[in-house]
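Give me the fold.
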Amino acid sequence: MSITLHRRQWLTATGAAAAGLMFHVGRSSHAAPPAEILETKVISQHPDLYHGWPTLARCRNGQLLLVSSAGREAHVCPFGRVELMRSHDSGQTWTWPEVVMDGPIDDRDAGVLETAKGSILITTFTSLAYEPILTKAEKDGKWPADRLARWQGAHGRVNADQRKAALSVWMIRSADAGVTFSGRYDTIVNSPHGPIQLGDGRLLYAGKELWRGENRVGVCQSTDDGQSWEWLAAIPTRDGDAHRNYHELHAVEAADGRILVQIRNHNQVNAGETLQCESDDGGRTWSTPQAIGVWGLPSHLVRLQDDRLLMTYGHRRPPFGNQARVSADHGRTWSESIVVSGDGAGGDLGYPSTVQLDDGTLVSAWYELMSGSSRAVLRQAKWRLG
């Protein structure tokens, strides 16, 4: 079974989503604007460890922040922790990674945002998906003794009840530019790249509940700069879809005031494609998700300086890598694909996120298991759009 299917199995849940308003999302595509890839390089600094699922953010002072699930041995293992790196020169160099979250079980996808008030929010979710792997290894007796001891040692940091209590969706917050962070607290939902800042001052978090209740898919809001979160609205499902097969959402506020959310879809119809829905009332009601003709996921959305929207997403079939599309009509239609990277060795890659520098240059970061290696690295591309 593929890595993608394994990952989705961990997030399955049951339940129904509420109905919403209908908006038209065009499936038509148009020619992509010209793009030039200026540089691609590896930026992680622990080549002996596995890195996954990063998010890149740009602060108002120009500093770049990058968080990822690091310290890992593999795509699924008990060692995941959230690390933060900074760049003071637009991605030319990066600081040594700082561990900002390291709970008693696996800390996975990492998101980061600088709010309008200057606070830094970092998100993750925790998982026990490694447990059946460890149980099988103990039963089969085929692992090297040192590897088995490492896994057992990590697993044994807390007892079974404490491990179960550690399963949640988490955020930490810094009010001093990331010098110190709060303890972790619950955010109701999770998605790989975390929440966004809205123009009205609220924070909006499009995501999915994990490990609780009906595992709702929808949006939460914060009106106190991310210190607390409240449920705002469910996102409806298409006829025939199960909301348990919607995953890894991300949102953007367009220049016309509408909010778009894109969704990783694993329902039978349009499986492996990105779905999109919209809200024209600040996130209180949502259109039914629709396919936009994009195979690849999950996506990250950003509004560019010229008010075009950019989506970047992983492409886990040839050409393996990461792609982007542009919308000049506030997300109603999207361009043909732009290949940001296409030299991947396989499907264990993606989760790109993108920021724009003052001069218009784009910086994208993602994770990738490169040819000849057993440890995924963080890669970065600098590129330009016409």
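The longest strand covers residues 50-58.
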